[in-house]
Design goal:
This protein is about 45% helix and about 5% strand. The protein is α+β, with helices and mostly antiparallel strands. It folds into 2 domains: about 80 residues, Glutaredoxin, CATH 3.40.30; about 110 residues, Glutathione S-transferase Yfyf (Class Pi), Chain A, domain 2, CATH 1.20.1050.10. α1 links the parallel β1 and β2. The radius of gyration is 17 Å and the shape is globular. Bound molecules: glutathione. The site of glutathione has 13 residues, from α3.
């Protein structure tokens, strides 16, 4: 039995997408971030900070999306979704896999600033601008790589791409896409993968974003 503890539209989408790429059977235990369900003792026993994803697999539970991705990949090396230790592009693979969290942490702070902070006066337009600039820098790194190659690794699709399944739909809500044609085209290429679409069909409706783009308010 494999069970994914999941919030629609969250980092747990990374795991959902990889489970589909690996053609594994699993079920989903859904949560919301606004109803206290991720603060219940049963969930905290699986994920001590009350964060998704957590995955129950092989009679244990694992939290941290990067760790879960690596665990799943090690279980099925024959799937060819990650260069093995010692392979020439192993270092690039690990960089991209973990860089997704550098980017996701900026998205998380932008979500807090634009959406969650109450009262609205507690929000800081200066911080919003700084975070959006830092997010754009992470997008520029992707843009440079994706100009001239279709996937983050030159050798083709890998779980490094899967790690951005949560990030990419969100980054263009805070940074305009005009300067990132390669990244936009990449987002479209990833979204038409059959496994991505199956994952999306199981994801559930995200409730976080009410707008396509979040402008920094005038100060
Ligand atoms: N580094 C962790 C971050 C997990 C994380 O922060 N998940 C968010 C959803 S995207 C969450 O559960 N937030 C709930 C909270 O902070 O209470 C991972 O990659 O698994």
């Amino acid at each position: 039995m494999i069970r994914l503890h999941h919030v629609p539209g969250s980092r747990s989408f990374r795991i959902l997408w990889l489970l589909e790429e690996l053609a594994l059977d699993y079920d989903i235990q859904p949560y919301r971030l606004d109803d206290g369900s991720t603060r219940q003792p049963d969930f905290l026993a699986l994920s001590p900070a009350g964060r998704v994803p957590a995955l129950e697999i092989d009679r244990q539970a694992i939290f941290e999306s990067g760790a879960i991705l690596q665990y799943l990949l090690e279980r099925q090396p024959q799937a060819g979704l990650a260069p093995l230790p010692g392979a020439a592009d192993r270092a690039r693979f690990l960089e991209w896999l973990h860089f997704s969290e550098t980017q996701a942490a900026l998205l998380e702070q932008l979500n807090i600033q634009h959406i969650f902070l109450r009262p609205p006066e507690a929000r800081s337009p200066v911080l919003m601008k700084l975070l959006a600039r830092r997010l754009a820098v992470t997008m520029q790194a992707m843009e440079r790589t994706l100009t001239g190659q279709d996937t983050l690794l030159a050798g083709g699709f890998s779980a490094a791409d899967v790690a951005y399944g949560f990030n990419i739909p969100a980054v263009f809500r805070f940074v305009r896409g005009d300067a990132f044609p390669a990244l936009q085209a990449y987002a479209v290429r990833m979204a038409v993968r059959p496994a991505f679409q199956r994952a999306q069909a199981r994801d559930g409706a995200g409730t976080l974003y009410a707008r396509d783009f979040y402008e920094v308010p005038d100060v």
